[in-house]
Amino acid sequence: MRWLQQTARGDIMRDVVILGASGHAKVCIEVLRATGRYRPCACLAPNSTIQTILGVPVIRNSDSEGLAKLRTEGVKDAFVALGDNHARDHVARVVEQLGFALITAVDPRAHVSPSARIGSGVLLMPGAIVNADAAVGDLSIVNSGAIVEHDCVIGRACHLAPRSVLAGNVTLGEWVFVGVGAVVRPDTRIGADVVLGAGTVVVRDVVGGATMVGVPARRLDRTS
Predict the structure, then answer these.
(1) Which residue out of 24, 86, 150, 159 is catalytically annotated?
(2) Average pLDDT estimate for 191-204
(3) What span, in angstroms and rounded, lies between the C-alpha atoms of 146 and 156?
(4) Which has the closest alpha carbon to 80: 35, 117, 43, 128?
(5) Is residue 61 part of a domain?
(6) Which of residues 103, 121, 140 is at a domain's end?
């Protein structure tokens, strides 16, 4: 088939379409290549002004048109390379409805405990750590050097920015964003759609929809 390529070991690499063509897509492409299992064959970005990204052709068709074309050419796997939590979740649902499988990208330099549970469509970047009995929900991102300690539960489509830390037994709801270098103390629950600003230190539970900043974390009015 056009979209299959042999690896040096004789295994067949699986071709994957990337949804997105931004800087975040670049790191996703490199992680997928580093796995030795996937070959990014196209980036689908209807509003893009570029033709290629890291050597991968950019397709400007609408999501449905571009994906349908690739499906007829034998591509079965997809990866949503969008940093925004809600956008990533929405596009992933469209992709799955069109019959694509959402793959998970784990960089070889990430550490994942054998007892950890990792969902589909997840991105684990270089230096990411996911420790014992932690669970990372579908479509979540554990970025470069971020730490998910033992027994944490991360909801769907969350994003842990570089160097952020979840101490043991932290629970995140859906669509939570944990900013660069933010820290959450053990046994803390964070509600859905929460934003933790860069460097924030969370020492108590946070209700859904809040934006938290500072040390210790305080609530910021999103309308201000």
Answers:
(1) 150
(2) 98
(3) 17
(4) 43
(5) yes
(6) 103
